[in-house]
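Posted in: Protein Modeling Q&A

I'm a second-year student putting together a small comparison for a lab meeting, and my supervisor asked me to include a predicted structure for LysR family transcriptional regulator. I've never done this before, so apologies if this is the wrong subforum. The sequence is pasted below exactly as I got it from our records. If anyone can share the structure token output, I'd also love a short note on what stands out.
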Amino acid sequence: MLSSHRLRVLREVFRTGSIAGAARTLRLSPSAVSHQLSRLEEEAGVGLVERGAQSLRLTAAGRRLATRAQEVLDLIEAAEKDLLAQARADAGQLRIGFFASSGYRLLPLALSTFAARYPAVDLDLVEGQPHELMPDLERGALDVLVVFEHALDPWRPPEGVEITSLLEEPQLLVLPLGHPAGRTARVRLADLADEPWITTYGTDTPVSVLERASVLEGFSPRIRCRSDHYEVTLGLVRAGLGVALVPSLGAHGATGVQVCRVEGPRLYRRIGAAVRPTNPNPALRSFLDYLLDAAGRLRSATG
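Accepted answer (user: helix_wrangler)
Welcome! Here is the predicted structure, written out as tokens:
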């Protein structure tokens, strides 16, 4: 019989790409990780790793077993929860990862009603960029992760992760009060080609959505500042130091600036909830219902 502990070791070697990476995550020594892999090979009766003088890689059998390991670990966790009488939606713990601007309105709307309905569920909230927190979801440290995907920068979720679509959120143009472009309902980015811009660092790349869209509009924006904190962006625009593209969640309720729609190529992002479909946490499905309801209310409020 395969050891769940050794399957977890194999899964981390596959995810991190090395024995050293797995050792750091599991808080084991590299030699202990190597020993557990050898024992797992004995249990499986097939070679799982190819060891070179300076490298290690998984065999085809090792990769296949590693992709199944999280499913096995989730099933074991479900059985343990059943044995401990934890399979209740109104108790236990729910671990939620989210990006900052989803914490302005979307997540509070969902959590306020969910927490009122299930006060005994212990909520553990972790803020961070989706690409930073995705490994935590994959290895089971998070139950759900609120993610976004820019239409101009699409991505695919890792194997074993599913996305529930919540809403599409437009990118809005934020201008200092009195800016001439604010007199029209919709503006093209190219009309502001000579303006200084406040933009982000990009999603797991050095290129922001503004820069991707500007290329399609035929110009290269002059970047004055980069920040992933929309309060900083709005403050700089408010002070007259530049203009910016800000998702509607980040621009909601902004004062001292002008906000208008942008005519341009696919200037929106998709918001979703990423989960492992094999996750046995009984509170998760209930929370997803509340998250979908909150997204629906936001869509209705913004039209």
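A couple of things worth pointing out for your meeting: The chain is about 40% helix and 25% strand. The mean pLDDT is 88.
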